């Protein structure tokens, strides 16, 4: 126990006070503006992690500030015994943007993992015993979402989990071999973000749609990370020309305010009946008002097109560096994974922080970039300079034969 806590000793306070669910924090962040954040020592960083693909409008965006303030001064929470105008407006906008339309329905949650829980419940309600998911997938940390997460290390301490889940390699052949009329649902991410920005093979989603439809199984997409414009279309499935039975959303939906949603299409929208699911905070007026304002701003400023264009610009810039440590760039829009030719991800992250740049390392041979969708030429140029310097720093250490 610490009797005396030095106020500025945030590392010590974190170590003493916080549950050990995460590693030691990289910095203590005190404020942000646009694509930039400041730490408690006054240093400025270009934020290409954006709260892990959350702050789609960047930090302290006037639209978010206005929506939070307006709704907080009006009504924050009413409970699900009551409707509120913002939740109805957001549901209408989501049904339009997803294409679920008049036959769709929305369930509001507070996080990604909860949106997936609702999807797992939909699957259970079909009455079929098997759920298919993919190896290396990530769908969240609550027990239902963990049950469909294809990472044995994450699941092991909490087994037994929901029974009947099978994990497949991400190939059409594996899906063809596994699917049958006893399958309730296939749950997939269009691009596996946490596993290292791993896109599904070309044609996989189209084949998955055909096979699930043929066998009467649900196709549930986890667009918690890929959705809300990130990949250069509103939702990644729209770039593939398919329609799912349900899509899980969270992360960028309210630009940083916690929210999750499961949008169900057609018959799948009728599966959950009164009393079968719910959440005290789900669909609260504050989160839904901010989400509706964020989506309206993305539409107004055409940030989906910006994500597509800036993603290509970033990819070209990274490849044009022609650096020995860069093997390629995976992903779409503003969800990019820089392939490294050596396992130096964390060294590069540290070097980037030294240059005032925040990036992320989902695995040692990959740097993940999920910046705000508002970035333009200035931020991309700043990224280029800082990332090039970070690469040089790591390369110099490698050349000296030292531990970088
Ligand atoms: C694809 C995907 N699904 C689910 C989740 C879980 O979302 P949350 O952390 O909001 O519970 C995440 C979070 O990283 C994710 O990337």
Question: Nutshell version of this structure?
Answer:
This protein is 36% helix and 18% strand. α3 runs antiparallel to α10 (285-300), α4 crosses α10 and α12 (345-354) packs across α13 (377-399). By secondary structure, it is an alpha/beta fold.
Which regions contain 5 or more consecutive residues with pLDDT less than 50? none
> In angstroms, what separates the terminal alpha carbons?
35 Å
Please give the largest β-sheet.
Answer: 7 strands, mixed
Give the H and E element order.
HEEEHHHEHEHHEHEEEHEEEHHEEHEEEH
Rg value = 21 Å
Q: Mean pLDDT, as a whole number? A: 96
Q: What proportion of the residues is helical, as a percent range?
A: 25-40%
Query: How many helices?
Result: 13
State the oligomer.
single chain
Shape: globular
SS strand fraction = 15-25%
What does this structure look like?
By secondary structure, the chain is α/β, with parallel strands linked by helices. The protein has 13 helices and 17 strands. It has helices spanning about 10-15, 50-55, 60-70, 85-100, 110-125, 145, 150-155, 170-180, 205-215, 285-300, 305-320, 345-355, 375-400, and strands at about 30-35, 35-40, 45, 105-110, 130-135, 165-170, 185-190, 190, 200, 220, 245-250, 260-265, 325-330, 335-340, 355-360, 360-365, 365-370. The chain has a 7-stranded mixed β-sheet, sandwiched between helices. Strands 1-2-3-15 form a 4-stranded mixed β-sheet. A hairpin with a 2-residue loop joins strand 1 and strand 2 (about 35-40). Helix 3 (about 60-70) runs antiparallel to helix 10, helix 4 (about 85-100) crosses helix 10 (about 285-300) and helix 12 (about 345-355) packs across helix 13 (about 375-400). The longest helix is centred in the C-terminal third of the chain and has 23 residues, at about 375-400. It is globular and about 60 Å long. The two termini are about 35 Å apart. Pyridoxal-5'-phosphate (PLP) binds near residues 111, 116 and 138.
């Amino acid at each position: 126990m610490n009797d005396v806590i030095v106020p500025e000793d945030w590392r010590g306070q974190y170590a003493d006070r916080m549950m050990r669910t995460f590693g030691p924090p990289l910095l203590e962040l005190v404020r942000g503006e646009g694509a930039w954040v400041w730490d408690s020592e006054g240093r400025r960083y270009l934020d290409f992690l954006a709260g892990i693909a959350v702050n789609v409008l960047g930090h302290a965006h006037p639209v978010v500030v206005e929506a939070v303030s307006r709704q907080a001064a009006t009504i924050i929470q009413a409970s699900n015994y009551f409707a509120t105008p913002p939740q109805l407006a957001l549901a209408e906008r989501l049904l339009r943007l997803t294409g679920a339309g008049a036959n769709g329905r929305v369930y509001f949650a507070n996080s990604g993992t909860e949106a997936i829980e609702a999807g797992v419940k939909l699957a259970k309600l079909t009455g079929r015993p098997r759920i298919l998911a993919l190896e290396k997938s990530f769908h969240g940390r609550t027990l239902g979402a963990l049950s469909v997460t294809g990472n044995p290390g994450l699941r092991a301490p909490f087994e037994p989990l929901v029974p009947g889940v099978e994990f497949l390699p991400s190939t059409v052949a594996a899906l063809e071999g596994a699917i049958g009329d006893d399958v309730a649902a296939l749950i997939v991410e269009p691009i596996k973000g946490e596993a290292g920005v791993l896109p599904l093979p070309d044609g996989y989603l189209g084949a998955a749609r055909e096979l699930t439809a043929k066998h009467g199984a649900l196709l549930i997409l986890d667009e918690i990370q890929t959705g809300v414009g990130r990949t250069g279309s509103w939702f990644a499935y729209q770039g593939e020309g398919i329609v799912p039975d349900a899509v899980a959303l969270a992360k960028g939906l309210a630009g940083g305010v916690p929210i999750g949603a499961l949008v169900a299409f057609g018959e799948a929208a009728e599966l959950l009946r009164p009393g079968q699911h719910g959440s005290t905070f789900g669909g609260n007026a504050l989160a839904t008002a901010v989400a509706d304002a964020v989506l309206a701003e993305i539409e107004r400023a055409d940030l989906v097109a910006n994500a597509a264009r800036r993603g290509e610009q970033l990819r070209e810039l990274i490849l044009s560096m022609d650096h020995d440590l860069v093997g390629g760039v995976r992903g779409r829009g503003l969800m990019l994974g820089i392939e490294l030719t050596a396992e130096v991800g964390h060294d590069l992250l540290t070097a980037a922080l030294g240059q005032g740049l925040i990036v992320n390392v989902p695995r040692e041979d990959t740097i993940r970039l999920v910046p705000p969708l508002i970035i333009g030429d200035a931020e991309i140029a700043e990224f280029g300079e800082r990332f090039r310097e970070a690469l040089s720093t790591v390369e110099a250490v490698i050349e000296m034969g030292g531990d970088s």
